[in-house]
Design goal:
Strand content of chain C: 15-25%
Largest sheet of chain B: 3 strands, parallel
Order of helices and strands of chain B: HHHHEHEHEH
Number of strands of chain B: 3
CATH class of the domain at 48-180 in chain C: Alpha Beta
Order of helices and strands of chain C: HEEHEEEEHE
CATH architecture of chain B: 3-Layer(aba) Sandwich
Strand order of the largest sheet of chain B: 1-2-3
Low-confidence stretches of chain B: none
Oligomer: heterotrimer
Shape of chain B: globular
Chains: A alpha+beta (399), B mainly alpha (174), C alpha/beta (209)
Strand order of the largest sheet of chain C: 1-2-5-4-3
CATH topology of the domain at 48-180 in chain C: Beta Polymerase, domain 2
Helix content of chain C: 10-25%
Chain lengths: 399, 174, 209
């Protein structure tokens, strides 16, 4: 840590002067700021039981939040810059790191985009394998999210149950791909490996059991009067504001807008499967927390359909040339529905083996804009329930 | 004379000094017992720095259940913690905060570097915003490799730390 | 999805080859017969609905806008920085697009410009649910950037599309493009003491490369 005091700290008059600068130097963002006699500024995070890897600078008047300024970037690792130095295949492992528990879905738009750039058509069986993997990953993501939501609200059972049941699906993914969370399974041209022997039966059995288990969560969590009291009518996002703020995923569907990329712009084989996109109209934290749970049941349904319709044999990947590259200058924007919402990938190619520019348009970053808006006027105690109901994963937002 | 010195304002200083003296007196003969106590109270600070926190959370799940070893219990205040598990990448923005958290913890404190990013920078070795390992800012006791490490690996790392503490001299307050 | 694309209507990018294959639009995902496609020299029909969107914009603004490409579900429009505000206003009011999905900056040192690309979508109009309008504009690029006080400037679109707020803050710190009229041009993701040039510009080299 640096011990020297930067010169610009002294010049800002609003910041409290520190007596011994050499020993007690604080980074500029951490210095205390005096706003008002009545209004207090509170730094929540980055070290906080349950805030995740971000800081919320909250101004409170008594118990009520006056303003909130989210301060992300604690896990900004420069994925987009790194992608410009790696070719289309070696980009795969590090691009899934932002959401390791939803790694198939964050790779999905990238892989679709590269396939469009290269002009590859994917075999039919690979498409179904991808859909199954993506839906399993969506469940894995939502279970982790639900577990943390339980911890946020002080509901320990809701941490233990999802993290336990989640291992069922992680087992399935481990069987399929060989890794617990970071699968690197999707590649341009298909998937890396074919399904293992009798995967279909095991998958069907596990998914059926999983669905039975998550239905029991209603009794302990979603019908729990304490949860309802803490989340209902908290942080209400109206339909107009949801459109104006451009939020996505469960936050959008909780505000009464039926928008699911799987349904509106189907990719791979989603147009052959029956997808229910769940919509609620309340727009409060309760609706936002319930929609992912209902999504999981829908995902189980999709997995069963895909297992039934999947061709029983056939190739799962197209052989690529080494160092594949696009033909000349081209741009492509692909999006998929991830566990958090619409996830887009914008690739600019200039005909080299490396992308000229790669941009991940991530749902967490898009939903973050709603946070200051929702927290204004709420009680400080409601902050955790509103914050985590946005389906927010800080690592992804920072990239 | 002692009575004049011992005012209510200075009482806690005296109590602290007394504690130091006691610890020095009994530290050596009772080192084993002190270490034994420290082994079973390895409570981590709740600071998540990157994606390894997913597997850290999974280690507390019913399947792995790290709390059966009496360690890694999720805990609120860092003033009562003596273990910091650095869960993944440390960026340049996070590094001063991590050091602040470490400085606020009471002695004795131990550091586990979890994941390839915390050890060497890992996949992000050439990123402009990532530290190449946390050795530069924290004294690391145990390295847990993997990207991310499986929960079993984390548990083994904790057991290694226990083993290490057992063999250490009982550290006094520095 | 598969690689449906069409011939660009204007030659905005000289390197951009007319992409080759044309396929019926209905079920692009189901046919698995061509594994790697052969280039065909057939003239392709532009997708009609997307063409109508680009036609409306061209009709309104004439030669102030430039249609970069009309692909399936994507319409690309290039605008100069003087007109981007007016075009965006028309896109919202006249064409029912209502939110911005993604704002990306692309650095072109050879043209001495930084492109800012808005991907604009619509929630309220069901017929536009598949569509994304790719509005691209370019800012002047400085050799030695001083973010905030040099000529790399663009008008903000925050008063039209509220959802660009954080995206434009990100572009400001990553490329040094200052958005005039943005109320909150502060740093978002980078550390507070970042003193180097904006990292996503091409002249910023990461270590060891």
């Amino acid at each position: 840590m640096t011990t020297e005091l930067p010169t610009d700290i002294k010049s800002t008059s609003s910041e409290i002067q520190i007596d011994k600068p050499s020993s007690k130097w604080l980074p500029p963002g951490l210095a205390l700021q005096k706003v008002d006699e009545k209004i207090m500024t509170l730094n929540v995070g980055p070290q906080h039981p349950g805030s995740g890897h971000m800081r919320l600078i909250v101004q409170i008047d008594g118990d009520y939040i006056v303003a909130c300024d989210p301060d992300p970037g604690y896990v900004h690792r420069g994925e987009e810059k790194m992608a410009e130095y790696r070719n289309y295949i070696t980009n795969i492992p590090h691009l899934e790191r932002p959401v390791i528990h939803d790694s198939c879905n964050i790779l999905y738009p990238y892989v679709l985009g590269v396939e469009e750039l290269l002009g590859i058509e994917v075999p039919e069986r690979a498409k179904y394998v991808r859909v199954i993997a993506a839906e399993l990953n969506r469940c894995i993501y939502i279970m982790y999210w639900l577990a943390i939501y339980g911890i946020f609200l002080g509901h320990s059972t809701m941490f233990m149950w999802p993290t336990g049941d989640r291992e069922l699906l992680i087992d399935l993914m481990e069987k399929m791909t060989g890794a617990r969370v970071t699968h690197s399974h999707f590649i341009p041209g298909g998937v890396r490996n074919d399904l293992p022997a009798n995967f279909e039966e095991v998958c069907l059995r596990q998914v059926n059991y999983f669905e039975k288990r998550i239905k029991e969560y209603a009794a302990v969590f979603y019908d729990n009067p304490i949860l309802i009291a803490r989340t209902q009518d908290t942080g209400v996002l109206s339909r107009q504001d949801a459109i104006r703020l451009g939020v996505t995923g469960s936050v959008l569907r909780a505000s009464g807008i039926d928008y699911d990329v799987r349904k509106k712009e189907p990719y791979d084989v989603y147009d052959e499967l029956d997808i229910q996109s769940i919509v609620m109209t309340e727009g409060d934290a309760y609706a936002r927390s319930k929609i992912p749970w209902l999504d999981m049941m829908d995902s189980c349904n999709i997995i069963r359909q895909a297992l039934q319709k999947m061709p029983k044999s056939g190739s799962v990947r197209v052989k690529l040339k080494p160092n594949p590259k696009g033909k000349g200058f081209d741009t492509v924007y692909k999006r998929v529905e991830s566990g958090r919402g619409s996830l887009g990938c914008y690739i600019v190619s200039d005909g080299k083996p490396e992308p000229y520019r790669l941009k991940l348009s991530v749902p967490s970053f898009r939903n973050l804009i709603a946070l200051p808006y929702l927290l204004k006027g709420e009680k400080l105690g409601n902050m955790p329930s509103v914050y985590w109901s946005l389906n927010y994963w800080p690592v992804e937002a920072d990239r | 004379m002692l009575k004049d010195l011992l005012t209510p304002e200075t009482a806690n200083v005296f109590v602290g000094k007394l504690g130091d003296m006691l610890e020095k007196a009994i530290g050596k003969p009772l080192g084993y017992a002190i270490n034994w106590g420290r082994i079973w109270s390895l409570w981590p600070v709740h600071i998540e720095t990157a994606c390894c926190s997913v597997e850290f959370g999974a280690a507390s799940s019913p399947r792995y259940d790290v709390e059966r070893f009496g360690i890694i219990e999720a805990f609120g205040s860092l003033r009562q913690c003596d273990l910091i598990v650095v869960q993944g990448t440390i960026t340049r923005k996070m590094a001063p905060r991590l050091r602040l958290v470490y400085d606020q913890m009471p002695e004795p404190k131990y550091v586990i570097a979890m994941g390839a990013c915390a050890i060497t920078g890992g996949l992000y070795f050439d990123s402009y915003n990532v530290l190449p390992g946390i050795d530069g800012i924290l004294p690391v006791d145990v390295y847990v490799p993997g990207c991310p490490p499986r929960p079993e690996t984390l548990i083994q790392g904790c057991l290694l730390l226990q083993e290490k503490i057992k063999r250490m001299k009982a550290r006094t307050i520095v | 999805m598969s690689s449906d694309s069409a011939k660009p209507t204007t030659d905005s990018k000289p390197e951009e080859k007319p992409t080759t294959d044309s396929k019926p639009e209905e079920k692009p995902t189901t046919d698995s017969k061509p594994v790697v496609k052969k280039p065909e020299e057939k003239k392709v029909e532009l997708p009609a609905f997307e063409k109508s969107i680009s036609d409306k914009i061209v009709e309104k603004f004439g030669d102030k806008v430039e249609v970069a490409f009309v692909k399936k579900d994507r319409v690309g429009i290039n605008v100069s920085r003087e007109n981007v505000h007016d075009v965006a206003e028309f896109i919202r009011d006249g064409l029912n697009y209502d939110h911005v999905e993604s704002v990306s900056g692309v650095d072109y040192p050879q043209d001495n410009e930084i492109a800012v690309v808005y991907h604009i979508g619509s929630y309220s109009d069901p017929s536009l649910a598949r569509q994304l309008l790719v509005l691209s504009t370019r800012a002047q690029r400085e050799e030695n950037p001083i973010p905030g006080s040099d000529a790399t400037r663009l008008p903000t679109l925050r008063d039209i599309f509220y959802s660009v707020e954080f995206h434009e803050r990100e572009i400001f710190e990553m490329f040094g493009v200052y958005f005039e009229g943005h109320p909150d041009n502060r740093r978002l993701l980078l550390p507070e003491d970042w003193a180097d040039i904006p990292p996503l510009r091409k002249d910023f080299a990461i270590k060891g490369r």
